[in-house]
Amino acid sequence: MILERYIIRNYVGPFFFSISIITFLFIMDFILRYIDLFLNKGVEFLVVLQTFILSLGHMFALIIPMAVLPATLMTFGNLSSENEITAMRASGVSLYRMILPGVVMASLLTFGMILYNNHVLPESNHKLLNLLIDINKKKPTVEIKANVFISAFKDYTIYVRHKDDKTGQIRDIQIFRYSKPGALPTTIVAEKGRLEYIERSQLLRFELENGEIHEMPQGNDPSTYRRTEFKHYVINIDDIDRSLKRSERKYRGDREMNVKQMKEKIEAIRSDIAGVDLKMADLATSQAKAVFRLLDATARDSLLGGAASSQPAGAPSTRARRDSPTPRLEVSRATAKANAQAMRSKSAVTYRALESQREIKESYFRQINRYRVEIHKKFSIPFACVIFVLIGSPIALRMGRSGMNMAIGLSILVFLVYYICLIGGEKLADRRIVSPAFAMWVPNVIFGVAAIALIRRASAEQSVIRWTRFNPFRSVKRTS
Q1: Domain count across the chain
Q2: What is the pTM for the complete model shown?
Q3: What is the pLDDT of residues 263-273, one digit of tens each?
Q4: Please, are residues 188 and 233 in contact by the beta-carbon 8 Å criterion?
Q5: Non-local CB neighbours of 172 within 8 Å, separated by 6+ positions
Q6: Which domain holds residue 359?
Q7: I need a surface site. Which of 110, 377, 434, 471 has the fewest CB within 10 A?
């Protein structure tokens, strides 16, 4: 156990170093993604800090597995550079025993990440999305600036040529007030004035002096134009509340649910699919009955023959009707044509309804696949911790002293391939091209197979005697 504890202690430093580097990169991405939103909305620092803390939820779901690979490469690279790997091999320590401590720690980490993804991550994502929605609803912080048209206020556009930020004095003011859609705005101009924000009443007050009001009360009718001069005029723009209004959104997306909630959602969707199937069966049955009715001659003549095939009591003979043309035949043909057209229209409506129900059913299946993808993702990504230990250990041993130099580059390459496989599989599963289980686990399978091959090869190379015993020609070829 002394050897195992020693290897685990060597893991701790590189692991936390990798976490710090990857977390820093994620933080930079967070800043670039949300800085414009925070600045435009005037979000307080505590709200920004809360958003960042909640964002760490989905960050750590990826950071922890990603940190395992560079930690493994650096750990075994350090052991190899200090010739400790050579000493272990000389002492008869097998490669499997060297890798075992990392696998055990990765397994514990996998179990912890599964619990984290199922219980902590959904709540974190739900609160983060609620907060981002509230921030997006927040009214922007508008500052009246000189020589800039401000149109953020409802029904107003404001232009100020000069402004004193200390006293609130303004000069050369133009205010355009829109009262009716499509109508010319009321224009208010003033030589000077004062700007004041009344926080308690949520009002923006303009106290204007020596100005004019130009307006057309009757819309765009020039004959109603009116100009009013004033010495003192006050404009109050209300609803200037820039505070963040918190709300609680009940709806949860697939990434805001745990496994139990997603399974319940899948069962509910399957019930909806059963209802769609019943509706499609009813539509198809009614259409089939309407078609099969035409196989019966009596029903066909009654529907399409109309009065042409029916002879009511006391009607004239066929010969008499043949000799003397009557409008009854023309009426029956028109009726038959109308009935046939009605049947075709009804059939077309039924087919469109069936196609609509089929598309609804397809959308339900896509929803089920999306939930199943998220369920498998909660297990497949944490299991990548074990895969990265298995694939990183033999690679670091083969690199030897260059392991430290190649750790970052190789990690980025592996992450890129793994991420492409994961995202590509998710898209294929959402489109029902492949199953969700296959889509989410195929990256682990690919890298797992590669890891087993590398471990077997590195283990075989560890003992020259054992290798020679099983394959002497290959041994000679390698040593030549």
Answers
A1: 3
A2: 0.72
A3: 999 999 999 99
A4: yes
A5: 160, 161, 162, 191, 192
A6: 258-309+320-371
A7: 471
